[in-house]
Amino acid sequence: MSVLLLRLGGPLQSWGSSSRFARRGTEVAPSKSGVLGLLAAARGMRRTEPLTDLLGLEFGVRLDQPGQVLRDFQTARTLDGRQSAPLTYRFYLSDAVFLAAVGGAPDLLHGLAEALRRPKFPLYLGRRSCPPDGPVSLGVHDLTLDDALTQWPWLATERYRRRAARTERLEIIRDARPGEPVTETVPDTPVSFDPAHRQHTWRSVLRRHVDVSNELVERAGVTEHDPLSLLGG
Q1: 51 in helix, strand or coil?
Q2: Spatial CB neighbours of 81, under 8 Å, sequence gap ≥ 6
């Protein structure tokens, strides 16, 4: 099996799967519908076009640098200043970095990787106001989706890793396969991005964790803070 790996990082991200009306929330990690939308934009697909082959892709994400939730209170008026738009609360993830993996047929994944290098439409991380801070594609690799999410090097920034522990536990959220225990179900499988008939179906999700070594701390010779060790505890 092959996987296309993505680095999703930027000053702001917002991955809503159930936002409505004046309160637009964000999930703690990139949604499958949001990432498929990003891939569709890279290929130059219009919102009214069928998603076809993208719907068969397997998806998972690792929370390498979770970031912080940021609330933005927005006001707006019409151009002539006579009418006010509804007041809205919009939530973002600031200073976050994720490793996303998309599994599928090699030919399809190589085509998507090429599209990400030369996108037809601008790429954004959930909302148009959230551009990525660098190249998104990490290439196509001959790995299973699980191996990619557990073995790929940690993508957190150096500043973040310098403040982290010698060993960090990262959360992985991926599609649950038939027969696996389901952690939760979310409305996160897109059927259509058509603004007039936007549709999503339910997606079964499995959450797990993986431990990664913090090489920056190991090279610096920093030891864990464990005052109980002096007492033999």
Answers
A1: coil
A2: none
Which of 116, 105, 128, 134 lies closest to 43, judged by CA? Answer: 116
Q: Output the CA angle 226-230-233, nearest 5 degrees.
A: 75
- CB-count burial class (<10 Å; 0-12, 13-18, 19+) for 232: exposed
- The Cβ of residue 154 has, within 10 Å, a number of other Cβ atoms equal to 20
- DSSP letter string over 212-224? EE-HHHHHHTPPP
Residue-wise pLDDT for 7-19, tens only, equals: 999 999 999 866 6
Block residue for tokens 């030369």: 118
Distance separating alpha carbons of residues 140 and 2, to the nearest angstrom: 7
**CB 214 within 8 Å of CB 167:** yes
- pTM equals 0.87
- Residue 177 near residue 208, CB atoms below 8 Å: no
Taking phi first (over 0 means left), then psi (-120 to 50 degrees means alpha), and beta for anything else, what does residue 21 get? left
pLDDT single digits (tens) 188-211: 888 888 877 788 889 999 999 999
| Cα distance between residue 199 and residue 192, in whole Å | 5
Q: Residue 95 contacts by C-beta under 8 Å, 6 or more apart in sequence?
A: 11, 65, 67, 68
Q: Is 154 left (phi over 0), alpha (psi -120 to 50) or beta?
A: beta
